[in-house]
Design goal:
Length: 64
Amino acid sequence: MMLEPSIDALQEKIKSKYSLVTLSARRARQIRENKNVLVENPKSYKFVGMALEEVQAEKLSIKE
């Protein structure tokens, strides 16, 4: 089973795995609470997957 988006593709957007996990977990909680997804027709039905799709689509990032 291949995960989509891949970790390699996500690390091109956000370098730190720790930051990626923290960001996606926070965003997943927000999506769960208010059902507002920033990407149209997400492939994933899980909240963390939706958050990772937002990172891949560059709708979600970390300020440096």
